[in-house]
Protein 1
Amino acid sequence: METEQRIFDPRAGLWLLIGANVIAFRPHTFWLELALIGLLLALMLVHRRFAMAIKWAVGYCALVVFQQFILPVSPMIIATSFTIFATYTRRMFPCLMTGALMLTCTPLRYLIVALRQLHIPQKLIVAISVTLRYFPAIREEVGYIRDAMKLRNIRGLDRLECTVMPLMVSATETAEELSAAAVTRGIENPARKTSAVSLRMPAADCIGMLAVFILLVLSYVVQ
């Protein structure tokens, strides 16, 4: 059963996502980047995503070690090939962390309520809600296809055909089913929507929003 403490407020998530994207493409120091990474790791721990926090921390440390210590002593062709990739991956790391936290800690119905409170156009909300339900359904279908191929011992290039063809058919059917489900629920009804969900922003999310705002200001002040 979901609890208020374990749900990452979608309004805080959207603000953190915007702040992380702005900071990512601003000239900033390593310590500012480290502070943002530390803040996101702390939010993961607050929301009891301990395994996720460890994985992201290890991934970031590995990326920094690769960029700072391995690439400088690598052959020129390797350094040239991977420097840009490593740089942009590091810049996008906070954005990916925020997105992962939202996907695991923010149920879709909470996100929809938050978007309505922020007066986002209803057509955009419909598109977002259907899209976010579409990809998990397709991922589940891919798992079923893989299990079926293992049972039939299908190998080699035959796996490509046996994956793509059923997936194309399933993708079309899934899109139609989700569209029908959305219409059945009255998602296109222009009347004012009500919800049993009551959004209450936890103190940790408020502190996180304030911290990102401070880091955002520092990214313009400290060069």
Protein 2
Amino acid sequence: MMKLPSIAGHKQKDSSSRCAGGQQGLALLLVLSMITLLVAAVVSFNQAMSSGYAETNIYKNQSIMRAMTESGMDIAMAVLHTDGTSNQYDHGFDSWSLLGEQPIPGEFSQGVVEAVIVDHDGKFPINALADEDTPWRDVLYRLLTSGLFVVEDEVAAREIVDSLADWLDEDDNELPYGAESGYYLSRENGIEPRNGPFVSLAELSLVKGVTTELLYGTDEHLGLREVVTILDTGGTVNLNTVRAPVLMAIDPRINAEHVEKLEEFRADENNAPAFSGVSWYRRVSGWPADIELPGDMLKTDSQTFTVTVNSRYLGSRMSLIADLVRDSDSSLRIVRRTYRYL
């Protein structure tokens, strides 16, 4: 009799095949999983390396730019020092004033360094308002009522002058239109007035009557920040560099035509030798003989400056801004300095 194949044998064989196939499938899945993990690890590693390289490159570029910027500041300070030792008066044809007309020459591969020096002795000395006998309070009143600034009326102008003076003076006695601690402490987030010199232009915005439009200007009006300084100029202005609005406010009889003629005289380099004394304005064509500028408010030298150094390197930009004081021996002191990455 023919024997039939054992069913149990077939089942055992099929079971063994399925087991082997299952083990092979599991092994394949494990291999694929490992490959996936390895690929992910490689991609992550490459990304990390790329990110690290980019960060390193950025740091390198910033370090180069910072060195360039510091070099520009050193050069600007050297120019100011040399100018101070070579002459006793400052004007628009001095080397420091002309420094910003072209980039600073140097071995700056793929980079550019520019420096601009602005003197503050040609601006209104806002901290001089602390002195109750100072003529600068009247000058500021005329400046505010000139129509160049956002000031509502003459009463508002007087309020601003008195409030600025109260902020600066050491006592707690309010001027007729001013404000002292009682006013400021009654406001939300009340503060005490400084009762001392301003330490920043932004601080002016804390004073009663000083609006954002007045401080920073508008499309149609100047801002106080353009014509005032918080640096110590000794309560005087340099006639050779004084801003036109400030000059016009020094004497109510001075008009725009007078200032224009004076600026034309200052713009002629042939007149530079005359700038050593404060009486040169009398030589200006058309200057009224009866207008005599107050000598105790004027000078012809500058001691306070802002130096702005701008550097560009491979598409990146950096600025360094420093306020400086030049002492009588021409040495320079840094009052404050700020870096900006652009």
Protein 3
Amino acid sequence: RRVRRNLTYTCRANRNCPIDQHHRNQCQYCRLKKCLKVGMRREDRAVLGSAMQRSSLSPIAAVQRGRLPPSQHPNPAQYALVNGDPLNGHSYLSGYISLLLRAEPYPTSRYGSQCMQPNNIMGIENICELAARLLFSAVEWARNIPFFPDLQITDQVALLRLVWSELFVLNAAQCAMPLHVAPLLAAAGLHASPMSADRVVAFMDHIRIFQEQVEKLKALHVDSAEYSCIKAIVLFTTDACGLSDAAHIESLQEKSQCALEEYVRSQYPNQPTRFGKLLLRLP
């Protein structure tokens, strides 16, 4: 934020304040100094900040206006697995999962250790930033998986508009978002937009459902390949309005479901009901 907003901080002590989990917010000058010391680059933060500012649009609107172009991705017809692929498979569907995994933004490294430490206390501002990154990562992932970038742009937007909240839930569970985040999300939402009593009740109900869904997914110990398949199943839905080729999108959903089923049967042979449980946990 200091880089993006071109702020100047001043240390009130001797420019050597302790910066740890419990004191990191007491001196912004020393906190920035430590960030730069351990390798944070100003230009990287400036690029990230300007990209997010250019998208005062929502992530979905950014897709619609072409501001999040898809990265180079393999031809979906070429599903050969590379050496050392964790799937240890050779089928067409295993190759499909491999490409889904390559599109993953890997939240544990992207968002840092904060996301993975249940006992870490995060402030509202940190929570809002994490939530925004989770949402943008869902769009980034979709833009880089097989087949989705080849759909009509209107279909891409329609699908993301419909399922962004489900993808957010799955990303939150996948990065092991601490459970105390839900109340903070609620507090941030209520602070940002005053609501009537009825809307507050409905909003808090959504937060409760969000927390329950994340807890249930965590309890299943879903692995990365399963998360990728589940997100593809959620994304390729024919429930969106105005799709230009609903039959094709339905076939992509079926492909994703078949890939998940094959993977689960191969990797979890002692859990015959696991595939069904995963489908029941779809947000």
Protein 4
Amino acid sequence: MESLTGLTPFLLLLAVMTVASSKEINGMHSEKIKFQVIDTSATNCSSIYNYSHLNELSTAVRSNDIPTFVRVLKRGICIRCLTYFLQQGILHIAVEYNAGGYILKKLVDSGADVNCQDNERNTPLHNAASGCKLFAVKALLSMGSSANAKNYKGMTPLHLAVLSYCNSTDILKELVKHGADMNTVDNSGSTPLARAITVYDKLKTLLDLGADLNFTDPFGMNVLHEAAYRSQTRQIPLLIQRKVCIDCQESSGWTALHLAAMVGSLDSARHLIEAGAAVNIRDQDGNTPLFYAQSQRRK
């Protein structure tokens, strides 16, 4: 049912924000926040909850303290209520602090939205993927988390898994197994494959899983253009072996060989020429790769 304000979210949060300065045990000042939660789909969220209740729940989650966690839940606290002072949901906290499977499942069973977005529109799955948390990724996907949700940069969990610091490709495989779109683009027009161009194992894994290596971004660049521009000499033979378009031209008429010449990457140029790249293709300014190679030599 539509509310008087015209908003129709599953969870309607109404103001009742009372900010009071109070001293914590350590002598520091903090702000207590009281807010009234009115949930149109549940009756147990119509009372006023104090910050301390939410804080106790989040503390139990952070420390994986199951007895306290269960005790707080029994009070009837509405865990679907977003904690505005943290700008994230309780599942985000659970993922960040490596909560166990029992806590994750109990939160979802108790009403936590598995696709809840924080202030950057990241879901718990985004955070699990970027944080190399394979257990959480598997758990969230099994509970219905969307593998294709996008954050404010247009990135899916697969984009973030590619950009993460971990070397393992298991999270990539798990996301794709659960329907992650390997050819979706972020706000800059990049696919997960394009984002993986600097990490050989992740690039190879996505190719093995069926990513489109001839997909082009808004500027007409495919992954071979990206590899040549970034001097990724190990990746270029892999892409050539997988039948990438070698002489495709982007919006300025540049081929991968043009870009290799521009950045002065002799190894990239050699790989391309040995694979049969055309050396006489001209860009929109009428220049061949040789022109840019000579320009590099004059620098």
